[in-house]
Amino acid sequence: MALNPWKTVSIEKQYDNEWIEVSESKVITPNGKDGIYGVVHFKNYAIGILPIDNEHNTWLVGQYRFPIKTFSWEIPEGGGDLKIEPLESAKRELLEETGIEAAKWTKIHELHTSNSATDEFGILFLAQDLTFHDPHPDDTEKITVKKLPFNEAYEMAIHGEITDALSLIAIFKAKILIDEYKI
After folding, report:
1. Pairwise CA distance, residues 179 & 174, whole Å
2. How many domains does the chain have?
3. What residues pair up with 48 in beta bridges, in sequence order?
4. N or C: which end of the chain has fewer CB within 10 A?
């Protein structure tokens, strides 16, 4: 592993709320020049869940995303408290957004969502052996839940109809698991 070529001179908090903190660091860059670096620090995990039933159907959640100012189809996902086991947050998110509970859980991937500007760490789960209840989304969420064959979700991802990073990684990873390991 390479040693850190960045030298931090100072760090100043620019913004702070319940979910994120934004800081600006004065730095010496790897090429020895003075510079600045802004970082968004996330105060939770990014949790994503891909539910798949025995017939290889899945569920997507659609909602308007304020930062990108557009409607987005995604796997069920949300923030997981750093003090809580990520699987527990995944179970909560899946039930809240879709009304689905799963008897079988598999962690399928870990990732950094945008490591050039944030420290957000994501964990993706595959949920199987599903049972169904009424969803209970957060008050801030106005969501649409769509059941579809997994291969249709995969085609949506291939054709750019799904752009959310957690969703894309989960769908592509699941496609490999389905094709190669017959999950």
Report:
1. 8
2. 2
3. 77, 124
4. N
171 phi and psi, to 5 degrees? -65, -45
pLDDT in tens, 1-52: 789 999 999 999 999 999 999 999 999 999 999 999 999 999 999 999 999 9
CA angle 154, 155, 161 (to 5 degrees): 100
- Residue 78 within a domain: yes
Residue 91 lies in a domain: yes
Q: Which domain holds residue 15?
A: 7-42
When pLDDT is cut at 50, 70 and 90, the band that residue 169 belongs to is very high
Question: Side-chain half-sphere of 155: how many Cα atoms within 13 Å?
Answer: 5
Residue positions counted in the chain: 183
Examine the domain organization and report whether 124 and 177 are in the same domain: yes
In a domain, 2, yes or no: no
